[in-house]
């Protein structure tokens, strides 16, 4: 049996940050990655825009990942690549991780686990597109992998469904490589990607964005020959009378990401139906003591800088983890708040600043975020606008509140009244 203090599962930006943080805190750390190379999805993200928060400079995905990979090598971290975790079992206060790789099957023991398993893309089956099953239907990440890593051009004339950030970036990338992007279609009434990507990837390249429209059917035998587009009503139900046929040889899907938590579920970790990731406290420890989570396995982030931040917090906390009685206070989401992460707070929280991530439930202009304890306002912050696709981050000192186990902590977003806005002018 190989013994460690911390085992980090996943070698993407979250896992790399967690392993470095655990090692920095003096823990014997093992990093496990199923692919041949570390870096996760960043390996194929050759566009820039990474690192503006963490490094205060603009980097490509591979450049951002390389800085963390280099730090791991410099610190002599133990890392296993092309290694798959087949099972995690908890025996008392020890976790037994079974793995398989080129050297065969082995087991590793640790007092704490960090799950940094990232997320996966939704597929055509998951959004119920009817029709045949031709080649030429790709997720945006797959298309990106073909072009940026394999050097294959997957399409000459395509339609992109979904206005998520990967889809927007691929609209630009495909255009730069000579493909014709006929349009980006979004079933919602508002775009799903960051505003900067809407402008830099679509408007700058004259790629049309069609809101409240979706793909309802695909056509083709061996290869896709076209798609059917329909407008949708306010409930996002297709309107058959609006159907139109668009000839194309590929359909690129950018219809959302889902945190990868199969391993977490085998450990009976409780998941949040809003984020699809684990419920955790301010240290990103899940409902199972000793199991920590971070990055896109916790919730889907907009910026890799915040993925690394959560990895750093989880890794450091995992290094200092000791089994002891504890109790958590549950956060509640009020009006206009889609979700809050973390969802819980240790009753005896000691950190002067707790990192909080949240999204609004709908686009709102001129509003205020309130943190309330038993209906008393303990914090408020004004925003010019909030949009669901754009995650917000804030720091708050809960340690000064001396919270009790029965206290009710609520996060709410309230729109400023028209009269109040008029007076403020």
From TrEMBL:
Keyword annotations: Oxidoreductase
Domain of life: Bacteria
Pfam short name (any one): Pyr_redox_2
Gene3D superfamilies: FAD/NAD(P)-binding domain
SUPFAM superfamilies listed in its UniProt record: FAD/NAD(P)-binding domain
Positions of the FAD/NAD(P)-binding domain: 4-298
Listed InterPro entries: FAD/NAD-bd_sf, FAD/NAD-binding_dom, Metab_Enz_Cyan_OpOx_G3PDH
Protein name as it appears in the record: FAD-dependent oxidoreductase
Lineage, top ranks: Bacteria, Bacillati, Bacillota, Clostridia, Eubacteriales
């Amino acid at each position: 049996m190989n013994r460690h203090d911390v085992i980090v599962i996943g070698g993407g930006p979250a896992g790399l940050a967690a392993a470095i943080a655990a090692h920095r805190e003096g823990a014997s750390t093992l990093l496990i990655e199923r692919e041949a190379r570390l870096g996760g999805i960043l390996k194929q993200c050759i566009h820039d825009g990474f690192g503006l928060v963490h490094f205060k400079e603009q980097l490509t995905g591979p450049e951002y990942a390389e800085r963390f990979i280099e730090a791991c090598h410099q610190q002599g971290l133990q890392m296993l690549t092309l290694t798959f975790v087949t099972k995690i079992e908890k025996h008392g206060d020890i976790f037994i991780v079974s793995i398989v790789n080129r050297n065969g099957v082995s087991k590793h023991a640790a007092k704490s686990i960090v799950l940094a398993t990232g997320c996966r893309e939704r597929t055509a089956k998951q959004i119920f597109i009817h029709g045949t099953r031709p080649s030429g239907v790709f997720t945006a990440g797959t298309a990106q992998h073909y072009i940026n890593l394999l050097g294959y051009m997957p399409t000459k004339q395509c339609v992109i469904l979904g206005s998520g950030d990967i889809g927007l970036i691929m609209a630009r990338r495909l255009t730069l490589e000579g493909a014709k992007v006929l349009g980006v279609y979004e079933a919602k009434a508002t775009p799903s990607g960051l505003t900067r990507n809407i402008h830099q990837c679509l408007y700058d390249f004259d790629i049309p964005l069609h809101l409240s429209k979706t793909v309802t059917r695909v056509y083709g035998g061996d290869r896709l020959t076209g798609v059917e587009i329909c407008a949708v009503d306010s409930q996002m139900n297709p309107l058959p009378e609006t159907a139109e046929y668009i000839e194309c040889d590929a359909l690129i899907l950018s219809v959302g990401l889902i945190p990868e938590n199969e391993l977490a579920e085998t450990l009976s970790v409780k998941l949040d139906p809003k984020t699809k990731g684990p419920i955790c406290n301010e240290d990103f420890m899940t409902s199972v003591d000793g199991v920590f989570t971070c990055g896109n396995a916790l919730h889907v982030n907009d910026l890799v800088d915040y993925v690394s931040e959560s990895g750093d917090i989880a890794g450091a906390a995992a290094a200092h983890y000791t089994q002891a009685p504890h109790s958590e206070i549950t956060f509640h989401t009020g009006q206009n708040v889609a979700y809050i992460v973390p969802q819980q707070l240790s009753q005896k929280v000691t950190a002067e600043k707790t990192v909080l991530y949240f999204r609004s439930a709908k686009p709102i202009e001129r509003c205020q975020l309130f943190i309330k304890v038993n209906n008393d306002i303990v914090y408020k912050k004004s925003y010019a606008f909030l949009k669901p696709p754009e995650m917000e981050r804030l720091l708050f000192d809960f340690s000064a509140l001396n919270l009790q186990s029965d206290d009710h902590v609520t996060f709410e977003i309230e729109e400023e009244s028209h009269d109040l806005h008029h007076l403020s002018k």
